[in-house]
Amino acid sequence: MNQKDYQKLISIPETRFKIAARVVLTLGVSKVTEMTAEEIIDGLSNLSGFMEGGEIKVIAGAAKCLAGIDSAELLGYIHFCDFEFRDPDPGALHDEDGICPVCGAEVKYDGNEEDDGNGGGTWGWDCPECGASGKAGFNKVFDRHYNVTDGDGESIPGRPD
To answer: How much is the pTM?
Structure first.
């Protein structure tokens, strides 16, 4: 990675970096390398409801940059920045109470609790960082997230209803 690419990466917010990394991990290095920045931006159109076009352009540029970085250098950068990554599959069930299962940011609970009458229930939440929303399920303790949608209200594939 040259100094210019490194400076570009360290200047973007962590959440944007993680979204760019998710693009590369989901589509693969070869596919992202083949794509134009405009094609990546088109693929990220679901983010336009809660991110400005300039932010999406930054994510697309970062994805292109990440796809061109040697894996060892990228892992070193991630380690240096102390970024925590989860399974790149947004449908994977590695849920944590109070943490957005889409981007990893802290969620805001809306205060509307649905009690199932048996010590469990759900609390609605929204993510101020990526615009996702859903319900946190509790069965006497936190269980998992349900009804997760992106910022446009589209269901996240592989997530339970």
So the answer is: 0.48
